[in-house]
């Protein structure tokens, strides 16, 4: 039987919550954005338009087109129709989901010929924080991790721009610089951006790019090239997760490229295990 597909309204929130909770490790962006803004379709951070497939009253797949132009998929066999429904009439900056979901959505959106800046296959990793392996440098105080503050913003904006160039195909422009600035300002304001310091000197950073009371998702991990090879990335992630664990968070999620072997080794050393696959597709003309 063909699934019923439609846009979601406020009264659908309980069904959506139940579906996302059942797929929590894969649903961090969806769950966290929903927790921030509810089923509000708008232009402010975390707001989006949600489409779902139903079997009776139960949701069996979902896609959301968010304020930033990204379509996030937890859609299974319904990826094509759900992406088309959620993004109808709107510019799509990128697609995130399982590899098969992203491929189906790209075809449904007639985007196969759009140039891309990133087409990455990723591993999805999970860590119950009770099993976090803290690096010795943190344990003995050689380095320390803290939430970022407003005075850190110029440095962090530069780091985020460098991250976007290296990881997301960004090029030098005022718009790219402004985008990096906006992202770190939001993360600092939310208390989700962290800095690793050697003495008073910041040497690495990371953030929670999705946050819930029970689970956080690590992103924006960056060490300047001249400071790499010293375990700073592993230490900043561990320090951020210690902070989350002290506040009652029980699980962490992250994803990293299949070809990023150094990052994989660092995360496995912290206790993360791979639980699945992920795909990120960023279109070169993200701004529309």
Features:
globular, 2 domains, alpha+beta, 288 residues, Aminopeptidase, 35% helix
In short:
With 288 residues, the chain is of the alpha+beta class. The protein has 9 helices and 12 strands. 35% of the residues lie in helices and 31% in strands.
Structural class: alpha+beta
CATH architecture call of the largest domain: 3-Layer(aba) Sandwich
Q: Could you state the order of secondary-structure elements as H and E? A: EHHEEEHEHEHEHHEEEHEHE
Q: What average pLDDT do the residues reach?
A: 96
Task: Give me the Rg, rounded.
Answer: 19 Å
Q: Alpha-carbon distance between the termini?
A: 37 Å
β-strand percent reads 25-35%
CATH topology of the largest domain: Aminopeptidase
Low-confidence blocks of residues: none
SS summary, helix count: 9
Largest sheet: 12 strands, mixed
Shape: globular
- Percent range for helical residues? 25-40%
Spatial strand order of the main sheet: 1-2-3-4-5-12-6-11-10-9-8-7
Which CATH C-level class of the largest domain is it?
Answer: Alpha Beta
Number of domains: 2
The total strand number stands at 12
CATH superfamily of the largest domain: Gcn5-related N-acetyltransferase (GNAT)
């Amino acid at each position: 039987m063909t699934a019923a597909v439609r846009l979601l309204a406020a009264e659908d929130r309980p069904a959506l919550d139940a579906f996302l909770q059942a797929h929590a490790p894969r649903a961090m962006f969806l769950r966290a954005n929903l927790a921030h803004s509810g089923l509000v379709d708008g232009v402010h951070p975390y707001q989006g338009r949600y489409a779902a497939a139903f079997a009776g009253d139960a949701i069996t797949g979902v896609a959301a087109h968010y304020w930033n132009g990204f379509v996030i998929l937890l859609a299974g066999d319904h990826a094509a129709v759900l992406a088309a429904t959620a993004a109808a009439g709107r510019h799509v900056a990128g697609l995130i989901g399982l590899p098969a979901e992203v491929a189906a959505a790209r075809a449904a959106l007639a985007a196969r010929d759009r140039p891309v800046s990133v087409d990455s296959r990723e591993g999805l990793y999970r860590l119950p924080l009770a099993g976090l392996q803290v690096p010795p440098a943190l344990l003995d105080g050689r380095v320390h991790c803290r939430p970022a503050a407003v005075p850190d913003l110029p440095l962090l904006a530069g780091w985020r721009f460098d991250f976007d160039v290296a990881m997301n195909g960004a090029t030098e422009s005022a718009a790219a610089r402004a985008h990096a600035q906006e992202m770190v300002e939001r993360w600092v304001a939310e208390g989700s951006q962290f800095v690793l310091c050697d003495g008073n000197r910041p040497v690495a950073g990371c953030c929670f790019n999705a946050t819930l009371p029970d689970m956080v998702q690590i992103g924006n991990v960056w060490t300047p090239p001249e400071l790499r090879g010293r375990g700073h990335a592993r230490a900043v992630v561990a320090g951020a997760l210690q902070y989350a664990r002290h506040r009652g968070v029980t699980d962490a999620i992250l994803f990293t490229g299949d070809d990023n072997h150094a990052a994989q080794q660092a995360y496995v050393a912290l206790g993360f295990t791979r639980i699945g696959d992920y795909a990120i597709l960023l279109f070169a003309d993200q701004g529309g």
